Each structure stands twice: as structure tokens, then as C-alpha cells.
Amino acid sequence: MHPKKGYEPVILWVTGLLTFFAGLINTVGVALWQKNIGNLTGVVTKISLDLANMSGEFGESFAQFWAFVFGSLLSGLLVTARKAPKDFYRMSDRPVRRASIVLIIAAIFLFIGWAGTKHGGWKDDDNSVKFAPAFLAMAMGMQNGMTSKHAHAVIRTTHMTGVATDIGLLMGNILRREFMLIYEEKFEMKEIAADRLSAARKLTNVELESLRLLFVLLFAFFFGGYVGLYMYWTCGIDTLLFPAIVELAMGVGYLYFRTRVRKEGSKLMAEPLGCFSALRARFRGKFGKKKNKKIIEDV
């Protein structure tokens, strides 16, 4: 997981917020249905157990698994990779990125899961099929697919297994590199070349940047689960309205913003998640020069 440059603040905020919602939704799933929504490892295990025991819950777990896959499939249809060539899609002269549509559809799935559980009889009883986890899993699959394509590296927002693995690997890489440099310098009495030392420090900084993002995801998921349980105790299934409304607002807001910015020129849309930073830099460049000019005149 090595970004070529530092992550934009907006990427940290968006991925952190979506990971927070994933932790919150997962807590609601465990509290209400005893099901993990975004972690399919447990779901696949549950499918095998239900099949071996000929349990009636086999269909529910099977539907939840393929619902997550279907959500990722929709993201693949709507969102293109960052590095796609400009002429890859005939419909446009640049890669088509519809993150806003993904967020809107994911929010709709969350609303369906909430409405079905609250008003449609999908509650936890012996005579009803629990369809809500499948709709929530579709929403999780969509956001997971979206963040995986938009970031400089693969980012998973709905489960922490890969995050924990990457944290351990990056910390091990950094420690090994530092120990090797110290060993060569202190014990073998070798003078480390300046270019080699600079390259090592540069790679360490890149990995530290990745670690920062990974820890943001880890704490966001943990905090989402913590807050989600308290919200569930207070609001019950209505807790799902919080991520649904916010994701819908994010999708509609970004869609509106993207439409407005496109009128000003296509350059600002070269990086969809970085367009906010582009506007900010443009604003600072426009007004910062006037401010500096005024200071020079005063001097």
C-alpha cells in the first residue's frame, strides 16, 4: 500500500467517515440480527455451517454474500480506476467517475433496509425472512468498491482484516530498514551513501503516510462501532437513518458540486476527490498574491 504522494485531506475525511459508518452499520447488524454486515469472512463460514446443519438460515447468509458482491459489481460499473487512459471509454474524453451516484444508491439501500425492518415485518422473529442485512451488505459493497478505486492504493472501509495486515507489514518494513541502516553504520563501520540514505528516508516517509491513513480507518471503524451501539440502545433501527441521510447528502452535494465545477473547465475535475483541494489552491493563489502585494507595498 504505497501512495505516490501524500493523501489529500479530503480523502482522509471521506474514507474515515465511510469507515465510521461501516462500523456503525456492522454494530447494528450484530445487535439486531447477530450478523456481521461488511465482513464476509464470517458470512462464508456461516454459509458452510448452515449448509452442513441443513439450517433454514442458509438462504439468508447466501443472499447476504451475493448482495455484497452485487454492490461491488455496481461500483465497478459506475466508477472507473484512477489510472484508466483518457480514451478508454468512448462516452467521454476522460475516465468516468460517478462516486456521487454510488453514494446515492448506497444510501437508498440503507433506507430500504431501515424501512423494511421498521415497517415491513423484516424484524427478528421466527416467521420472517431477514432481508435487511442483504440490502445493508449491498450498500457496504458499493462503498468498498468506490474507495478501492478512488484511492492511491487499495482501501477497505468495511472490514479491518486487511487494514491490520497492512499495518503490521508496513511497521515491519520500516523497522527492518532502520535496523539495517543502523547495523551497517554502527557495527560494519560502513559509510552509507547519501543517495541510498535519501531513498530509504523517502520510502519510509511514504510508508508512514500509508500508516496514517490505515490508523485513521482503524480508529474510525472502532469509533463507529462504539457510537453505533449507544445509538442503537437509544434509537433502535432508526440508527440506520444517520448514515443513510449523510451518505445521501454527500452524494447529492458532490453531484451538484461536480456539475457546477464542470462549467468552469475540465481541469478541476482531473481528480474527483482532489477537486476541493484544487479549488482551495486556486482561491489561495488568487487572494494570496493580493495580500502579499499589499504587504510589500506597506514595507
TrEMBL record:
Keywords in alphabetical order: Membrane, Transmembrane, Transmembrane helix
Alphabetized InterPro entries for the sequence: DUF1275 (IPR010699)
UniProt key word Plastid: no
Name assigned to this protein: Membrane protein
Superkingdom of origin: Eukaryota
Transmembrane segments annotated in the record for this chain: 12-33, 61-79, 99-116, 128-146, 211-233, 239-257
Pfam families assigned to the protein according to its UniProt record, in alphabetical order: DUF1275 (PF06912)
